[in-house]
Structure formats: C-alpha cells, structure tokens
Amino acid sequence: DVKTGGKNGYRFFDPAFYGALQARQQLEKELQAAISENQFVLHYQVRVSTITRQVVSLEALVRWNHPTAGLVRPDEFIPLAEETGQIVALGELVVDSVCAQIAAWTRAGLAPVPVSINVSSRQFNERDMHALFLQALDRHAIPAHFVEIELTESAMLHDPQRTSAHLNAMHALGIRLLVDDFGTGYSSLWMLQQLDFDILKVDKSFTRLLGADRQGEILFAAIITMAHALGMKVVAEGVERPEQVDILARLRCDELQGYLIARPLDADGVQAEIRKRAIA
Ligand code: C2E
Ligand code: MG
Ligand code: MG
Ligand code: MG
C-alpha cells in the first residue's frame, strides 16, 4: 500500500504524527500556503474505449508538491481540505489548471482530449460551480465539451435541489456528468434518479471481484444493463488484470481505466501515452 510503502516515488505524512491535533493544525497551515502558492500539480490517467483502446478522456488527479515531503497523494490532504473548507479554493485552482492545460495542449497542436475533473460536495455548497466553470472555460477559450465532472453520491446529499440545478446548467453547456465510485455510497440509485448522468464509473471494489467471484460478475453485469437502459456509458475503474478486461469486454463495459491500462502520468507523459495508442 502506498500509504505505508512509499511506492511510485510518493512520500507521505506520518499518520501517527499528523493524527495529533497539533499536527492537523500544522497540516492545515501548510495546506493554506500550498493553496496561496499553488504547490499543486495535476496528473492525468487515461480512460480508454474497451473495443478500440483509444483514449476517450483523461482524469485529472491532483498531487501536492510539498516543499519537503515531495509529491503527496490526494488521500493525504483532500479529506482535511474538505473538513476545513479549503477544498473550495483548491478546487478553483484545479479547474483553472485543467482548463489552462487543455488550452496549452491545443496551442501545441495536440489533439485535445476531454478532461474529467473530480468535484467534492463542499465545492457545490459554497460556490456557484456553474459560474466557476463558465469563467474558466471562457478565460482559456476552450469549448465546454472538453470538460467533464466526476462526482460521488455524497456530493448530492447536502443540498440536492441546488446541486442538481447547477449540474443541469453545466450539462446544458455541454459538460458531461459522471458518477464516480458507483456502488460504494448509500444512495447511488437515488442519485441516478436526480440527474441526467452521461457516464457511470463503477468503483474499483467491484472490478477487483471480476475473475475471482461469480457474484461480483453478476453484480457488474446488472449495473451495466441498468446503466445502458438509462442511456449511460459504463467505465470500469481500477482495472489491474488482463482477465478483468476479457470479462468486461464480454459484459459490454464501454470504457476502461486502471493501472493495467496506464498509471496516472504528468502532462507530458500522458501525451506520449495518447500518441502511442493513436499509432497502435
Ligand atoms: P477517484 O476520483 O475515484 O480516482 C481514482 C483513484 O484510483 C486515483 O487515486 C487513481 O490513481 C487510483 N487508481 C487508478 N487506477 C487504479 C488501479 O488500477 N488500482 C488502484 N488500486 N487504484 C487505481 P488518487 O489519484 O490517489 O486519488 C484519490 C481520490 O482523491 C480520487 O478518487 C478523488 O476522489 C480524489 N481527488 C483526486 N483529485 C481531486 C481533485 O482535484 N479534487 C477533488 N475534490 N478530489 C480529488
Ligand atoms: Mg474520479
Ligand atoms: Mg473513482
Ligand atoms: Mg474516490
């Protein structure tokens, strides 16, 4: 596990230390500095078509380039940022950076691929997300269909009316809406009834069962049937083993994402990955 092993070049905070209140306050202070200096970098993980294996979208995954700890993964600071409300300012940086990156790729003559942005509930409660996205798209002169939004069901729980109104307005602009981590929350099905989602991302805990557990496959097949009947595409998250790809292809899962396809990569790395797949 990355949290204990420091694989992938990531370093991390010692949880024993940061578990203490004083340490939490320290982390919060450092996070504040990180936000005002924008110490964040975005990595991008490809999502590919199950049939063609071409890249259909990139997921932006934020990392904190901490001055002494090195590259810190989101699980180490997003939960605290959500608690303290710092996620709002952090989220604005992410939206702006993604739009700036899409514009830079476009200027460089690289075929622009839509980028999917993770958004937490607090961001919806405290900001006019519709205006925020509109302004960022406008500032960087990129069309709305280059941006997608991923949200988990918890994002809809606080103020469903307001959140769906904003999401509907963004959807009308051409921004695709994705359900993230489907199957892990308490109200996944209720959420589908609230909004017109385009794409459903099945949580990696279901993907993990494929090939090992017959019941897991039955559940996955049922989710795909339901999603297709509702007019959504389905993405399997966390694809790590070739046999999972075979099963997912047989189940008509539309798109794949996971370490087997590609790890999250920096902006240059992901462009190399896209090129490699365009030629192959
Ligand atoms: P998520 O949106 O569900 O993103 C998928 C996570 O699974 C990513 O972790 C990704 O690196 C990891 N992953 C991808 N393929 C595999 C695989 O094959 N196996 C396994 N075990 N894991 C895989 P990451 O980058 O650490 O991000 C964790 C979470 O942090 C994200 O989960 C998302 O909820 C949150 N997050 C990341 N970036 C942002 C952001 O900009 N804003 C907000 N609000 N949340 C973010
Ligand atoms: Mg996501
Ligand atoms: Mg997910
Ligand atoms: Mg998640």
TrEMBL record:
Q: Where is the EAL domain?
A: 24-278
User: Which domain of life does the UniProt lineage start with?
Assistant: Bacteria
Supply the name of the protein: Diguanylate cyclase (GGDEF)-like protein
